[in-house]
Specification:
686 residues, alpha+beta, Multidrug efflux transporter AcrB transmembrane fold, Alpha-Beta Plaits, four-stranded antiparallel sheet, 26 helices, 8% strand
Length: 686
């Protein structure tokens, strides 16, 4: 640290140019990074549905139904013509309709009504198909052009296409709302009109570099693309504020800009390092998730925190010194005066606050674990075409969630028996298999391949079980368990299941295991960092209890309001909120520890609150604004859920740090002193 500040001040222009150049290159390279919208791709390779998908792609070279087309006012022949046109589109495959389930040479009146009505009723046809992954936007546009405004298109691929189309627009909209809000908050907290620009430039450059360096990963998830840049900005702005506030203090003491910056770097390095370390280790816990969306986000956030730290400690000092004259020319008086007496008023409520929070924490802890969770993307807004189309398809033909069974190609008798038993299960509407569509008595090798290719590969028979359940939920998952038990009974472990419900069932199992691991790792790693920073056994417990209480209360609210919560959002926010808001508790506790060396506990807490209230308020306001804007602007249920939880969590963390933490510090002052190394707390004489 002796030469580090001197090097920065000496080569400030070179540093500024270098960072801007790297940021410019990153702006270009970020467009080469692919964004993955398929959540199933992030399941572990050993998940049953992942293995099943690999087997089906190897055996059948086809995909799972991921879209349905509803055609109004058509005859059977007209529906077949639509099917033919859909199959001719590049990227559309596995187009299936009534003619794949029954022989249309037989009059419809003589065919089982339940089978026919899964595909055709009241002159309306429902055609299922597979849209090639990665080209959803182009292909859905072509389908819309083919079917026109009067007909409907729905399904997972359509949702993906909509998310892709909206991602760029929503990110730009979020930025347009967020940047002015952050500037206003920063202007209120500084003494120069240009200072907020320095803050945003320093962190903005690190965000751009983070996005650009994703080219080395090749691909990021849609959650990472939507959440990571804004979250990085919100979490690491504090580092820039710490440094420039310290710089301003040394300038007021009469030091030259260069000397003041050197002093500011030395003084703020431990505080910024501690803050970055807790966030770093909190985010790194996400990297251990089996469900790799968490790992993808964790790697990006960890990389972002490191880049933000380097940008604040190297680029921001160089930028500030290079354009320091602008700061002098744009100085203004403090807009919001120092608020004195906050501590005195807050401490009046310390006993009721402790009692209230401890009464809330246990029910909140239990409630947040029993919230009704959603594991997929949820429903799309009904004011959009895809929302209306999905509702129309469901209204006319009901829910349809296929489960595909790949069973060994053994004998037709066993396959027939298996199919008949599956058809008896509740919520199974029909089964599409060779034995149903063709005949259980005609050996498939006697028929042309064009007849059998949808049902048989060299090694497996493909059986499509149509159900009327939602894609997820207790009923859907119970049915998956029933089909799994039945297929295992007939074929042992040689058969595979796949489909939307099966994938979400695996996702549920995976993320539930992740929850315990990630939460434990987050608490342990942040606790160890806090133990090192404070050289204390009690401070980490007090700080973690305060922030974790805000996490539990935040995540319990959906339970008491009766709302469903996207589990990916729940899992991520349980880590992110702790990692991002523990800085508030660190800032207050460090100041308290220093003041406690000079005065009694009550007086030390009052002074700490008077001094740090405004700084914590600014940080919480920025993080909360980021969360609520993500919630407002995103139509993606996962991103929106993360935004709401983040915005609300930052506010709750601020409230508990302001009211609960000071109360605990006063109440357990003697215990804290005894369990802290060389605490040197003030003792009144006599």
């Amino acid at each position: 640290m002796i030469n580090f500040p001197s090097i920065i001040t000496k080569y400030k222009k070179t540093i500024v140019v270098s960072f801007f150049l790297v940021a410019l290159i990153s702006c270009i390279t970020q467009f080469a990074v692919t964004v993955n919208y398929n959540m199933a791709d992030y399941l572990p390779a050993e998940a049953p549905s992942s293995i099943a998908m690999d087997v089906m792609e190897d055996e059948f070279q086809t995909g799972i139904e991921n879209a349905r087309v509803l055609i109004h006012d058509v005859s059977v022949q007209e529906a077949l013509l639509y099917k033919e046109k859909l199959a001719a589109l590049d990227g559309v495959s596995d187009v299936m309709w009534l003619d794949d389930a029954v022989d249309l040479k037989i009059p419809l009146e003589l065919i089982d009504d339940d089978t026919v009505e899964n595909y055709y009723k009241d002159n309306q046809a429902l055609i299922s198909l597979h849209i090639r992954e990665g080209e959803e936007v182009r292909i859905t546009e072509e389908i819309y052009q083919l079917i026109g405004e009067d007909n409907a298109l729905a399904g997972e691929a359509v949702n993906t296409a909509y998310s892709q189309e909206m991602a760029g627009t929503e990110s730009a909209y979020a930025a347009l709302l967020l940047v002015p809000i952050i500037i206003i908050i920063l202007v209120l907290s500084t003494n120069s009109w240009i200072e907020p620009v320095f803050f945003l430039t320093a962190i903005g450059v690190s965000v751009l570099i983070n996005l650009g360096t994703n080219i080395f990963l090749g691909e990021v998830s849609f959650v990472t693309q939507s959440v990571a840049p804004i979250l990085q900005l919100a979490v690491s702005l504090d580092y820039a504020i710490f440094l420039l506030h310290s710089f301003s203090d040394f300038r007021k003491q009469g030091q030259t800009p260069e000397a003041a910056m050197k002093s500011a770097i030395k003084q703020s390095f431990p505080a910024i390092g501690a803050s970055a370390s807790t966030t770093f280790f909190g985010f790194i816990a996400l990297s251990f998730m089996e469900f790799e969306i968490g790992a993808d986000l964790g790697i990006n956030l960890v990389k972002g925190i490191v880049l933000s730290f380097l940008s604040v400690m190297i680029f921001l000092p160089a930028l500030t010194l290079t354009f320091y004259k602008w700061m002098e020319k744009t100085e203004h008086k403090q807009i919001i005066p120092q608020l004195m007496g906050i501590g005195r008023h807050v401490l009046k409520f310390r006993i009721p606050v402790i009692l209230l929070v401890f009464l809330l924490v246990v029910p909140a802890f239990l409630a947040q674990a029993n919230t009704n969770f959603i594991y997929g993307m949820g429903d799309q807004p009904e004011e959009t075409r895809i929302g209306r189309d999905a509702a129309l398809v469901e209204e006319e033909f009901g829910k349809s969630t296929p489960i595909i069974a790949l069973v060994p190609k053994e004998d037709l008798a066993k396959e027939t028996e298996f199919v008949q038993n599956v058809k008896q299960l509740n919520h199974v509407t029909s089964v599409l298999a060779y034995t149903e569509a063709v005949s259980p008595v005609i050996p498939p090798e006697y028929l042309d391949e064009s007849v059998t290719e949808n049902f048989y590969s060299d090694n497996y028979a493909r059986i499509i079980v149509h159900t009327d359940t939602e894609e997820e939920g207790e009923t859907a998952f119970s049915l998956v368990d029933e089909v799994t038990a039945m297929v295992t009974n007939y074929y042992d472990d040689d058969a595979y299941l796949l489909g939307g419900s099966v994938t979400l069932h695996d996702m549920k199992s995976t993320v539930e295991r992740d929850n315990t691991l990630v939460t434990t790792l987050t608490v342990l790693t942040i606790g160890l960092v806090l133990m090192f920073v404070f050289r204390s056994l009690s401070f980490p417990v007090v700080l973690l209890l305060t922030i974790q209480s805000s996490v539990w209360i935040n995540l319990a609210i959906p339970y008491f309001s009766g709302d469903s919560l996207v589990f990916v959002g729940y899992l991520i926010i349980s880590t992110v909120q702790l990692a991002a808001t523990v800085d508030y508790a660190i800032l207050l506790s460090e100041a308290y520890k220093e003041h406690r060396k000079e005065m009694p506990a009550l007086q030390a807490v009052k002074r700490t609150l008077d001094e740090k209230f405004f700084s914590i308020l600014i940080s919480a306001s920025i993080l909360s604004s980021v969360g609520f804007i993500l919630w407002i602007t995103s139509t993606n249920p996962i991103v929106s859920s993360i935004g709401l939880l983040l915005g609300r969590g930052a506010l709750l963390a601020f409230i508990l740090v302001l009211f609960l933490l000071p109360a605990i510090l006063v109440l357990f002052d003697k215990l804290i002193e005894k369990t802290s190394w060389k605490a040197n707390f003030y003792r009144e004489k006599g």
